[in-house]
């Protein structure tokens, strides 16, 4: 069993441990030498180049992804060459293009913020007028971790993007500025043959557009857990997603769940599952894309908290702080992505699982703080 | 942080996942190409050749082991060259030579079976006469997985070994045939700076001299848990063991604990900890040999059961049975060592953790049986 992963970042890296456990051979096409998933890298090259990707995909049983940026024409050439690709291009396009995603959510009847495609300043002004003078404007493609997203109160705020779109750059869309109580994320994994498994609903806290902290299960979720699972299952089936799917959600102040974003890969909101679930999202993703039976998504403890290490220590590597961090928090599971510290960069994360949420949150925050 | 592991078997393989999580660079000196730990192999060569091992050890922070067979003179050359070696040769010799081990246990006052070094047939006959006509005879060096061990009722049963010893082959020792109720194993890990952590006592079942099944915590252990931990701590400190130490124990019919064997490395009786403990024996071993603070050894559930897959399926690889095994037991954690099936060979293991021992045992046995 050979799984080819396009992209050598930390998501590919975190597929290595379950691949080792299951005896799956992992082959990574990395963007450059020395990337986070270097241990499993069998090729270095440009994922936008069809020839590079086709050569990499030779002899693998399935191709999957560390990110969603492989162009549609490259994906289609893989499919045309008879390579199993999961998720397939027909699903991935909804993770690559937010206008297509919003349109498809509307067709599926899944609750989401008011939105409109925006091609001109007039269209944006009309949307602002209808929504109290404020909106979120996004580039339809290319955004991640808060990039490609702006809060807008007048067309001048995105004059550059409007001009860019007119000049053939990324298309734009506007979304209502949702008054939300908190953000949540629902993860599922789905096999090509249809089996689907959901993890408990996660509560996520974003800072500066980057996932900072995840608590599972989301406290005081009540029936929302079932509603979120139902939404994610409908999306996974409606879009024919294979592998891991994360549905980022807003919980509105009046208690509704609205779809914010989709990710068709292991997702930051699911890193807790490495240490907190019988089957981690990374193992489940491998099983799903190989069309193997999925594992139990039950939690190993009543509460799990994951904190990202963003930026990292002045010494340049998380490892420099291990003597202090590991001594202070012997229950913390520390994950380093073998990246050099840089402001705003995700260089690792810490997870703690246990019986008492308060205690778990304290330990996880204390351990993660050691690395700042 | 770079850890060099001599030996490319499944124990080295199972160090890869925690090394990836912690950002530790693992370098393996494998005996040949395509071994179980091939993913981390940076060199292939003979661990009995000092030049090979010294070249491998260049630039690593510490050398540790997949097995205990590296000759003392090679180990000593590493130490003389300034390489950190954990466990060190002064400790490892007690895992390499059962006569030295028995002598040292006696000096430490640790309970063990009656025993005697055997150099001649007369000495063996005297030991048999003193012990009801039966004994266990072992080669002091070179034995593993039931090899180098015989039940003996007369000197003719080991005439070949006696001749071998006289001709300069492995030395021999005799041990009383212990009437035991069951076998147990106590694992600890110890840092060079002295910190030591113990896991719960494990109950082990051997078949044909090979570890077949492990239940943790050992049922109905009562005070034996504390006694076993005390023994293992005294041994680890008395022998200055660094890294993982497993103490195999007999529980006698009259309720005493006697030391059977020692292993100074991650041990089959601790594989359950990958899925059942906050810190696995493999992560703990890496932390210990790097002299990093040790992690919590608390269990993630009240019961854990590990079953070895011995031999493996007729199709040659465990993976051939995944569709059936994973579907039937979604909570089972299946570990493949990427080895081809062969009678008597450990090719993988299955662990299940949960609240109810009966249920956990059933699931683990059912999953493991799929691979036979």
UniProtKB/TrEMBL annotation, chains A, B:
EC number: 6.3.4.18
InterPro entries xrefs: ATP-grasp, ATP-grasp_carboxylate-amine, ATP_grasp_subdomain_1, PreATP-grasp_dom_sf, PurK, PurK_C, PurT/PurK_preATP-grasp, Rudment_hybrid_motif
Residues covered by the ATP-grasp domain: 102-290
UniProt-listed PROSITE patterns: ATP_GRASP
Keyword ATP-binding: yes
A GO BP annotation: 'de novo' IMP biosynthetic process
Catalysed reaction equations from the record: 5-amino-1-(5-phospho-beta-D-ribosyl)imidazole + hydrogencarbonate + ATP = 5-carboxyamino-1-(5-phospho-D-ribosyl)imidazole + ADP + phosphate + 2 H(+)
Pathway annotation from the record: Purine metabolism; IMP biosynthesis via de novo pathway; 5-amino-1-(5-phospho-D-ribosyl)imidazole-4-carboxylate from 5-amino-1-(5-phospho-D-ribosyl)imidazole (N5-CAIR route): step 1/2
GO cellular component: cytosol
Keyword hit for Methyltransferase: no
Keyword set, alphabetical order: ATP-binding, Ligase, Nucleotide-binding, Purine biosynthesis
Binding, ATP: 98, 138, 175-178, 183, 260-261
Role this protein plays: Catalyzes the ATP-dependent conversion of 5-aminoimidazole ribonucleotide (AIR) and HCO(3)- to N5-carboxyaminoimidazole ribonucleotide (N5-CAIR). Catalyzes the ATP-dependent conversion of 5-aminoimidazole ribonucleotide (AIR) and HCO(3)(-) to N5-carboxyaminoimidazole ribonucleotide (N5-CAIR).
Cross-referenced PANTHER family: PHOSPHORIBOSYLAMINOIMIDAZOLE CARBOXYLASE, PURINE BIOSYNTHESIS PROTEIN 6/7, PUR6/7
HAMAP family: PurK (MF_01928)
The protein's assembly and partners: Homodimer.
Similarity comment text for this entry: Belongs to the PurK/PurT family.
NCBIfam families noted in UniProt: PRK06019.1-5, PRK06019.1-6, purK
Protein name as annotated: N5-carboxyaminoimidazole ribonucleotide synthase
Organism: Agrococcus jejuensis
Lineage: Bacteria, Bacillati, Actinomycetota, Actinomycetes, Micrococcales
Gene that this sequence comes from: purK
